[in-house]
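Hi support team,

I'm filing this because I wasn't sure whether my run with zinc ion finished correctly. The job status page said complete, but I'd like someone to confirm that the output block is well-formed before I use it downstream. Pasting the exact inputs I used:
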Amino acid sequence: MTIPPDADARRAIAPVICYPPDTLPRPDMERYAAARDGMVKVDEALAPLREAACFEVPAGHIFRISSVDGPQVGDLNLWNANDLSERFYSGKTRALHGTHITTGERMWSSFPHMRPMATVIHDTLGWYGIDQYGGSVHDVIGTRCDPYTGNLLQGGHYHHCCHSNLTRALADHAGLSLAEAEPHVHDVLNVFMCTGFTRDTGQYFMKASPVRPGDHIDFFAEIDLLGALSACPGGDCSSEHSSDTAACFPLKIEIFAPAPGALEGWSSPPPNGYDGTHGR
Ligand SMILES: [Zn+2]
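And here is everything the job wrote out:
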């Protein structure tokens, strides 16, 4: 390998943001705040430790994920409740909003729909920011812990990784076999998980989540949603996952109807405006 004489100059070129978000459709945060003030709880579910739970959220409702009993991270999948082919697109959400999301940012759906599925409207961990290691909370950079990677790295067959937890929960909720449900499981929003990339080697890292019981993150459902949340076997992800070693706790999911009248004139975002002809 030959290092070119202008290597330093090439490295010194300043980066540009790939997708400046200024022209994205802006979430109406005032309206969402009005919907959240006076919201009424209509349902709840619990993701037991090292298990997942499904829940449904009508468009215009709000769902909250809360830490209970102890620090715990969760792996979240979202689908259009009426069409499982429209699902959360972690990679594009990352490209638009960065490695982690918080209040005012959105979970975007897969092609060809590509529209907001949910908007974060409240986050008690919003204070965390980006720490000295480049770590932050609620990541869209990890995928989900899964038994295939576990088998490659450690051998064995661990069945309570988030991937398998989500697969079982979706199968039970939707009346599908495990083989039918598994392809619908997708890369997650890692709720409460504190992660980043190491500066020196660019490797994905995790560290103990700053979440404490009572912390929560609230989402506005932009479309009818089916969600699945796994209480990760990594617990607070301070040491390891893909085993029964870490201390684990459940996660609570609550569904709220919006304050009466707050959503007058509001409607779900339409599917993406691209004509879909791909030039032919
Ligand atoms: Zn996990």
